[in-house]
Fold this sequence. Notes:
The complex is a heterodimer. Chain A is about 50% helix and about 0% strand. Chain A has helices at about 15-30, 110-130, 150-165, 170-195, 200-210, 215-225, 230-255, 260-280. In chain A, helix 4 (about 170-195) runs antiparallel to helix 8 (about 260-280) and helix 6 (about 215-225) runs parallel beside helix 8. Chain B is mainly alpha-helical. Chain B has five helices and two strands, in the order ααββααα. Chain B has a two-stranded antiparallel ribbon with strand order 1-2. In chain B, helix 1 runs antiparallel to helix 2 and helix 1 runs parallel beside helix 4 (about 100-125). Classes of the chains: A mainly alpha, B mainly alpha. Chains A and B meet through helix 1, helix 2, helix 3, helix 4 and helix 5 of A and helix 2, strand 1, strand 2, helix 3 and helix 5 of B. Chain A: InterPro entries: Yip1/4-like, Yip1_dom.
Amino acid sequence: xxxxxxxxxxxxxxxxxxxxxxxxxxxxxxxxxxxxxxxxxxxxxxxxxxxxxxxxxxxxxxxxxxxxxxxxxxxxxxxxxxxxxxxxxxxxxxxxxxxxxxxxxxxxxxxxxxxxxxxxxxxxxxxxxxxxxxxxxxxxxxxxxxxxxxxxxxxxxxxxxxxxxxxxxxxxxxxxxxxxxxxxxxxxxxxxxxxxxxxxxxxxxxxxxxxxxxxxxxxxxxxxxxxxxxxxxxxxxxxxxxxxxxxxxxxxxxxxxxxxxxxxxxxxxxxxxxxxxxxxx
Amino acid sequence: xxxxxxxxxxxxxxxxxxxxxxxxxxxxxxxxxxxxxxxxxxxxxxxxxxxxxxxxxxxxxxxxxxxxxxxxxxxxxxxxxxxxxxxxxxxxxxxxxxxxxxxxxxxxxxxxxxxxxxxxxxxxxxxxxxxxxxxxxxxxxxxxxxxxxxxxxxxxxxxxxxxxxxxxxxxxxxxxxxxxxxx
Lengths: 281, 183
């Protein structure tokens, strides 16, 4: 036994079957005191150890990872299933291994692995959302592995850029930009949910945050080049790009008759951010 | 919960404990002291929220795993529903966790949230809406971790009981079985 946390999981994990067999084989020998030692029969105890379904689907973690995740499930999202209990491990004492060939759990991985995993998830989410593939089969399924790090950085970056470009009232600009974007994302998500759409709260927040990436680029360019005409063109292009990126997810989440109702506020928010970028001098 | 750390043993993971505490303390200290030194709200906001976010990540992914052996996260399954997953180490490893580590973990977790609440109340009283925003964000991050890990711990305790009961019943049944075969 005694596996320290730094031992990678793969080399030490036993499969379910081995553990069950250990459990079965160890019990009879420990409980028969006075009988002459007989080879332990593989007797199946009456209450056999239940084999719960592997509970550890490898998730790319929210750091949590992504941080900024409130674990209180949103009221309007589909009622989350009660948390699956972690699988009890056998007397072998190894860290609970997922059996039947499913991927290892993440409790004992080294820290660097976690960092790499989260970073790669941010990058893949960005690619998925911002460089939309028109031939993608199911747009609603993308961004399954939502994370809030990307949106956090993009919102803060946009606020910083706007604040930097402003010549007066820098703090107010930043606070307003941040609050507007954060509250806007929450309200837009609620809008979709109240329209009877099927979308997960955090998935939508994550999506709307990632779709800010083009506007971030636009704001950066506008900060560097002060010409009004250039600003208008750049903002128009990036605005169209952001809206195009957000369109498939939002539209697939609601009833087709209510598509416009869900998309219009998103467009409105991005347009207002665009105006903010143009108007800042 | 006792106010003093359990005596007689040292921290098993001193560096992890350090990082667990340092980001929280840095965020709180920066927020408190910045009013005297820094004039720019933007810097205060960005630095404080960044430190809080880093602390959130460290607690969730590193110190939670290593100091108390718990982890929680959210997944979206095939049906498009969100599922909260809670995970803990097996029982033997949980029992071997350093008591001092886990004492530090839980105490600093709760204490930070309480201190942020105090700061929030001060800002509210003074009608500084932008500082309330900062405190609000940091508070959300702290509470998220608290709720996640508390749920995880309850889950672990339930699982411990279930495991113990199951162990007991299986031993009992095999005892009975052997008793019958002897007869």
